[in-house]
Write a structure and sequence with these properties.
Blueprint: H1 18-26, E1 31-35, H2 70-85, E2 91-95, H3 105-116, E3 121-128, H4 135-145, E4 149-157, H5 161-166, H6 173-185, E5 189-196, H7 203-216, E6 220-225, E7 228-229, H8 233-239, H9 248-261, E8 267-270, E9 280-282, H10 289-303
Parallel strand pairs: 1-2, 2-3, 3-4, 4-5, 5-6, 6-8
Antiparallel strand pairs: 7-9
């Protein structure tokens, strides 16, 4: 069997990292400037549900500068990034918190284009839900995609309907697929979010999700462990001992097996999580990101395996 061309990358990784992708595309490292537009979500505002997903604490942008304009947020992010990496550092404007296509198209157009006008912005990354992609919004995203490097990030979490109902996603897997293929029909780069360790999912179920992802052949994937965050419905379930979280070694084993199944050309944008440590309830091992990353690298090397080793194109 042929080895993956990404094993001997400049990252010395056995999977296709975002850093490797960016250095090949741009010739240098690209950073992310996070933005919170103050938007909500259809399973928060009552349109489809209330309370959001059981792990949600009001959006994932915990270190954003909410309440400011896009320009002002980018100014603050530029200060942060340039202070560490220099004044010439380029970054993608990352619309991260909540559902960033859940607003009138005219509002979204103003938000997205204001980010594109900011110096040092080399592209947009827009986090959203697959059921919030109306035809006019797809048209807007298509226009943006013709002008800059665009990535749309979709929360898939799992392919199992019973899990999606349990976590209160209020979006079926069928709806998710419809939104995904709308984007792909326009040639828009898509990154899927997968969560391992969701309540009552077995390792076999997590691998079934990886098989589903592999069949979809996404441009990129973010893989992470389920975090129990303070003041969420998931925290209540955790303290009631309703489910068991994965141990670190279990998580590493699952990640390695998922990587083997994924297409070698799919960029792995995240392989573990680094949530807000001040709100993290469990698992505490996930806070040691370096140890988790090192454990994944070590396991891949011990097994002499790599991303895509077991991938079969359908």
């Amino acid at each position: 069997m042929n080895k993956s061309p990404f094993i001997f990358s400049n990252d010395n990784k056995r999977y296709y990292t975002l850093n490797y992708y960016n250095k090949n595309k741009y010739g240098k490292k690209i950073y992310k400037a996070v933005i919170d537009c103050g938007l909500t979500c259809p399973n928060i505002d009552g349109t489809k549900g209330v309370g959001g997903c059981i792990f949600c604490d009001g959006g994932s942008g915990y270190f954003t500068h909410s309440g400011l304009t896009v320009k002002n947020q980018l100014e603050k992010e530029y200060e942060r990034i340039s202070r560490k990496y220099g004044p010439d550092a380029e970054f993608a404007a990352y619309f991260q918190a909540n559902t960033n296509t859940y607003a009138p198209c005219s509002v979204l157009k103003e938000l997205f284009y204001s980010a594109l006008e900011f110096p040092n912005v080399c592209g947009l990354s827009i986090g959203t839900r697959a059921d919030c992609l109306s035809d006019d919004i797809i048209g807007l995203l298509n226009d943006i995609n013709e002008k800059t490097a665009l990535t749309v990030e979709l929360g898939m979490q799992s392919c199992h309907e019973e899990t999606l109902k349990l976590i209160n996603r209020c979006c079926t897997h069928k709806e998710f697929l419809e939104g995904y293929y709308k984007l792909k029909s326009k040639g828009i780069r898509v990154c899927l979010h997968i969560i391992n360790g969701l309540p009552f999912e077995t390792p076999e179920m997590m691998l079934e999700t990886a098989h589903e992802v592999a069949a979809m052949k996404p441009d990129a994937v973010k893989l992470q462990m389920l975090h129990v965050i303070k003041d969420t419905q998931l925290e209540i379930m955790y303290h009631n001992n309703e489910f068991r979280l994965l141990e670190r070694d279990e998580y590493i084993d699952i990640i390695v097996k998922q990587l083997e199944l994924l297409p070698p050309e799919t960029v792995i944008e995240r392989i573990t999580g680094d949530g807000d440590k001040s709100k993290l309830i469990a698992p505490m091992w996930s806070a040691d990101k370096i140890a988790v990353l090192g454990g994944i690298d070590k396991k891949l090397a011990e097994l002499d395996t790599w991303q895509g080793r077991l991938y079969t194109e359908k």
